[in-house]
Amino acid sequence: MSAIRLLVLGAVRMHGRAHGYQVRNDLEYWGAHEWSTAKPGSIYHALKQMAKQGLLHAHEIAPSTAGGPPRTEYELTEKGTEEYFALLREALTTYDQRGDVKTAAVGFLVDLPRSEAVTLLKERVRRIEEWRSAVLKDYVPEDGPEQLGHIGEIMHMWVHTADSEAEWTRGLIERIEGGAYTFAGEGEPFVGVLADGQENPYATGERHPGDAH
Which of 7, 125, 170, 175 could join 180 in a cystine, given CB atoms 3.0 to 4.6 angstroms apart? Predict the structure, then answer.
């Protein structure tokens, strides 16, 4: 699963309609260029590809009075909305994944109803425990990593990471069940995107040809 698809769809959805530079600006605001492959080229490519796939509707907007080429604003289609939630649910429950996918999913967690978020996270814990058990068929933590030479450090890392991940997920479930955060249908959502024209203190400043479109 690619984190860039989830990130781009989520950013567009938060705006309702957004042009490519807004999406890029949001992802840099979230630091996604540091913890994922969300670089300018991949962002603009993803927007165009998902428009071709029918996940986004591309609206050509007239150029501003200041001149310049017309910009394209993107909006999720019904198919795009279905894809977004399918990716989000998959990312929340799947343990065998890259960290960028998990990070993106947590960032969009509150787009779901509270009860569903809890259910998905409990399924995540179950899968973590299942994966850990599979590792323990070949590795005994109590015997230390040296039992398999330096390769044992890999399995030691896997078990340690699984334990840490499960502990964090259980804590998140407890906080959500305790009433933390505002989920879908509960009121005004957390505003995690920049308004058009709002300065981004985390912008890289790197120029890209796609910024003008």
Answer: 175
The three-state secondary structure class of 154 is helix
Strands 18-19 and 56-61: unpaired
How many other CB atoms are there within 10 angstroms of residue 189's CB atom? 14
The alpha carbon of 124 is separated from its chain's Cα centroid by a whole number of angstroms, namely 16
Residue appearing with tokens 């070949």: 138
Distance, CA of 130 to CA of 76 (rounded, Å): 35
pTM of the model: 0.82
The span from the CA of 51 to the CA of 46, in Å, is 8
Q: Which residues contact 100 (CB under 8 A, 6 or more apart)?
A: 3, 32, 35, 36, 37
Please identify every stretch of the chain with a pLDDT value under 70, giving residue numbers as ranges: 1, 62-69, 97, 193-197, 201-213
Of the candidates 1, 180, 160, 30, the residue with the CA atom closest to the CA atom of residue 93: 1
